[in-house]
Specification:
CATH topology: Rossmann fold
CATH architecture: 3-Layer(aba) Sandwich
Largest sheet: 3 strands, parallel
CATH class: Alpha Beta
Strand order of the largest sheet: 1-2-5
Structural class: alpha/beta
Number of helices: 7
Helix content: 40-55%
Number of domains: 1
Number of strands: 5
Order of helices and strands: HEHHHEHHEEEH
Shape: globular
């Protein structure tokens, strides 16, 4: 048991001032079905009970059609994506570096399976460079997938080794830490394909809204 809720610590910026790497995957909502969460039902509940709030949320998701898809993205961002934003701001307040990422790579043979992007936990064999050595990935990965995984693992090794005394991690794209006045995120995989791309102020409007919601309605203790 933690002595106090983790969210309370980060909202108050009382965490230890050490480097942090934090991020999430493009289809984190994949895990919610395991817990019996009805994604479309969450939007329908908002429509019944918080119609104004739903209208505001829809403005932040232009072009998203249908309760199922809107629910998938809203639940993903509220439960997972926003946490990286909260931690980044807490790190900025204490003057410690924070590296943020968004993992969206899918092995080439599995694009039809992972329609909405990388599922919850899909990044693990890339981070540890075990892709192709464990099931089920050994059944479908190719040399390009393995090469991409090696690049991802190199970032994590560089963070573990050097984050305490450098402000940028080397790799295919130099990955700068978020500092005061710098809100930057590394996209690891772009639209499920290989690539590394920096993005400033990632989902900033959504994150600002959901941070307020999280502060009053989410409990992680």
């Amino acid at each position: 048991m933690l002595p106090e809720p983790m969210l309370d610590v980060f909202f108050a910026a009382r965490q230890q001032p050490v480097p942090i790497m934090i991020g999430s995957n493009s289809d984190e909502a994949s895990v919610m079905a395991v817990f019996g969460i009805d994604l479309a039902g969450q939007i329908q509940k908002l429509r019944r009970e918080r119609r104004f709030g739903l209208g505001l949320i829809k403005l932040l998701y232009p072009g998203v059609k249908g309760d199922e898809e809107l629910g998938r993205q809203v639940c993903r961002d509220m439960a997972f994506t926003t946490m990286g934003y909260v931690v980044m701001q807490a790190q900025q307040r204490v003057g410690a570096p924070c590296w943020r990422y968004w993992f969206d790579y899918v092995a080439e043979a599995e694009h039809a399976t992972y329609i909405n992007g990388a599922w919850h936990g899909n990044e693990v064999p890339y981070v540890f460079d075990t892709l192709g050595e464990v099931e089920p990935s050994r059944q479908y990965v190719n040399a390009r997938d393995v090469q991409f995984a090696a690049h991802v693992a190199d970032y994590w090794v560089s963070f573990a080794r050097d984050a305490g005394h450098r402000d940028s991690l080397p790799g295919p794209t130099h990955w700068p830490a978020c500092r005061k006045g710098r809100d930057v995120l590394l996209r690891i995989g772009v639209n499920k394909h290989a690539g590394f791309k920096l993005e400033n102020r990632f989902m900033r409007a959504r994150m600002s809204l959901f941070k307020r919601v999280m502060k009053h309605h989410v409990n992680l203790d």
